[in-house]
Amino acid sequence: MARLAAAEHELIIDLGRGNPETGPPPHVIHALGQAARRTDVHGYSPFRGLPELRVALAERYRDIYGVSLAADREVAIVPGTKTAIVELCLALAEEGQTVVLPDPYYPDYPSGPALAGADISYAPLDPGNGWPPDFSEAPSDNVAAVYLNYPSNPAAVAAPDGAFEEAVAYARTTGAAIVHDFAYGDLVFDGREPRSFLATPGAKEVGVELYSMSKSYGMAGWRVGFVVGNAEIVERINLLNDHCRVGIFRPIQEACVAALTGPQDSVAERRETYERRRDRVFEVLEPLLGALTCEGTFYIWLKLPERVTFETLLTEHRVVVAPGEGFGPSGAGHARLSLAVSDETLELGLERLVAAFEAAP
After folding, report:
1. Which of 77, 113, 116, 252 lies in disulfide reach of 99, CB 3.0 to 4.6 Å?
2. Are 203 and 239 in contact (CB under 8 A)?
3. 152: closest CA among 179, 184, 196?
4. Confidence check: pLDDT of 313 > 80
């Protein structure tokens, strides 16, 4: 569509992609370059990653999230958390077991159960009550794992009070493992503090958390993430990666150490930028759509007006949104807007959205 529009000298505004528009801070790129120039880094790195990187991540968890991790047993380094989303199903679920997903969910969550031969069920997120998972709708037997994601992609809400405690209780009742996707953990607004699932009493006994370098540090294409928490699950991921992968390029890992241990100004600046853009979207769209919710991430989840669809927005107004149908059964009639675009692109997109919504019945 973009190529066709360009041939006709039309501009399509893309508010659909969740791809950070700003890369890492300069000291991280410098660390990568310095490491890559050394002669001792071009062989295979340790399959389980650099010990100093595991320590750096454990120190961040201690200092920022109030969670104690044993760096040698409770931290696995993986080539991106998207990899771990799939691999955890292979490590946790048997064929015919059930994996419970939140609804709405990140669109790659069903991939793991599909590859593992597992069934999918849902814990619907309740928008009328702060978006906690409703475990009364989830099965009670033969459950291998439950996936959660706060701050939520796509719902853009922070973890509601009691949600993590309920997840731990459900895990103890069913024997399921909890997998908490913490990719947007540092991107919370309105003075909120990041909340790790692992800070919940009993959480490490029943589950793990996924931490990503992509969103906090703008390192989306670098493909480094972590599985942290329950030592048995961490070891399963390590063992799987021992056989499937041959480590991550050492200079990238050293740059991740620089990101985790160096100045953190860029994390705060990134969060403030997305919060400012969130406020701008609210200013423009709330008069047309009513109150919107966005407590974190770089997304806004909204219900489209009657007779407005992602197709009509694209074909009639040349603006792309992520269609809600891709985010689970409850997504129909919704759309996800991305704030991970330039201010200029956002303004152009808002102009077109306003035109579309004002023209709607």
Report:
1. 113
2. no
3. 184
4. yes
